[in-house]
């Protein structure tokens, strides 16, 4: 996959993360990200057979997870 496409923002001006980028952000295996995507545990955008992650949705989800952990 071309990294050039990953640098382009979405139509709303927001960049989408790949599973690899999200795994690195959370320091988890990429397989965990894919499994969480398939089960609906994390906010996911499905583009054909590709999974992408809107940064703002991920940040909101992280914040919600912190709130429930308290």
Whole-number radius of gyration? Answer: 12 Å
Mind summarizing the main beta sheet?
3 strands, antiparallel
The CATH top-level class label: Mainly Alpha
Query: Would you tell me which CATH topology applies?
Result: Arc Repressor Mutant, subunit A
Query: What spatial order of strands do you see in the largest sheet?
Result: 1-3-2
- What portion of the residues fall into strands of 2 or more residues? 5-15%
Number of domains: 1
Structural class: alpha+beta
What is the helix tally? 4
CATH architecture: Orthogonal Bundle
* Mean pLDDT over the full residue set: 85
What does this structure look like?
The N terminus is likely disordered. The protein has four helices and three strands, in the order αβααββα. The chain has a single domain, classed as Arc Repressor Mutant, subunit A. A three-stranded antiparallel β-sheet has the order 1-3-2. By secondary structure, the chain is of the alpha+beta class. The longest helix has 15 residues.
TL;DR of this structure?
This protein is α+β, with helices and mostly antiparallel strands. It has 4 helices and 3 strands, in the order αβααββα.
Pick out its properties.
70 residues, alpha+beta, globular
List strands and helices in order, with pairings:
Elements: H1 3-6, E1 16-17, H2 19-26, H3 30-38, E2 45-47, E3 50-54, H4 55-69
Antiparallel strand pairs: 1-3, 2-3
Helix pairs in contact: 2-3
């Amino acid at each position: 996959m071309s990294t050039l496409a990953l640098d382009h923002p979405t139509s709303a001006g927001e960049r989408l993360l790949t599973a690899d980028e999200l795994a690195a952000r959370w320091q988890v295996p990429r397989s965990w990200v894919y499994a969480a995507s398939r089960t609906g545990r994390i906010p996911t955008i499905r583009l054909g057979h590709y999974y992408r992650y809107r940064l703002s949705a991920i940040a909101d989800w992280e914040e919600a997870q912190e709130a429930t952990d308290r």
